[in-house]
Design a protein that fits this description.
By secondary structure, the protein is an alpha/beta fold. Helix content is 18%, strand content 29%. The protein contains four helices and ten strands; from the N terminus they run E-E-H-E-H-E-E-H-E-H-E-E-E-E.
Length: 188
């Protein structure tokens, strides 16, 4: 069965995009990373928020512009939005509610990961109890402002179980399991 994995590159101070959704800060930290290349082969579909789908591209000005992960992955995408475009987009399904988007993305993933992209969609998945894992690539930079990895004012703490910590030249990879509701996090 497919799992939902929220993955994002984050600055050390907790931002995944700069002010206004600017992704240009990410360009210096993109590059060869065997961990990322292996992960791409384990992703069956994307579940993407509308702002992420139509937002800034960190691969702008390169041959990977406009492609998922700069061309490092291709496959079905499900975009969660209440405002689908009038014209169809090849390889993209637009869903108006979270339950439909998750079900569609899981079916399209064919047993592989559904990679969740977008802070708001990830927050919704977490609150709905359907997010299975979180993978954060911590980049060696302090942005100071922007879009946070998770922004849940008034939210309750969510304990996580560490699955792995690895590193590459431009990032430290932190992989966590989100326990299902009612399943306590094992304490070491």
């Amino acid at each position: 069965m497919s799992k939902l994995l929220y993955s994002a590159t984050m600055s050390l101070d907790g931002f995944i995009a700069g002010p206004g959704g600017d992704m240009s800060w990410l360009a210096p930290y993109l590059g060869p990373d065997p961990f990322v290349e292996d992960l791409a082969g384990r992703i069956g579909s994307l579940l993407v928020g509308r702002r992420t789908f139509g937002g800034d591209d960190p691969h702008r000005g390169t041959e990977g512009e406009g492609q998922a992960f700069g061309g490092g992955w291709s496959g079905p995408q499900v975009v969660l939005t209440h405002h689908a475009p009038a014209e169809p987009v090849p390889g993209v399904v637009f869903a108006g509610d979270l339950a439909t988007a998750v079900a569609t993305a899981k079916e399209a993933a064919g047993g592989k990961y559904v990679n969740v992209l977008g802070a708001d969609v990830a927050r919704q998945c977490l609150e709905a109890g359907v997010l299975d894992e979180i993978l954060v690539f911590v980049a060696p930079v302090l942005l100071g402002d922007g879009v946070r990895l998770f922004d849940r004012p008034g939210g309750v703490p969510v304990g996580l179980e560490r699955l792995s910590v690895t590193q590459a030249p431009q990032a430290t990879h932190l992989w966590w399991r989100v326990p299902p509701p009612g399943d306590p996090v094992p304490r070491g």
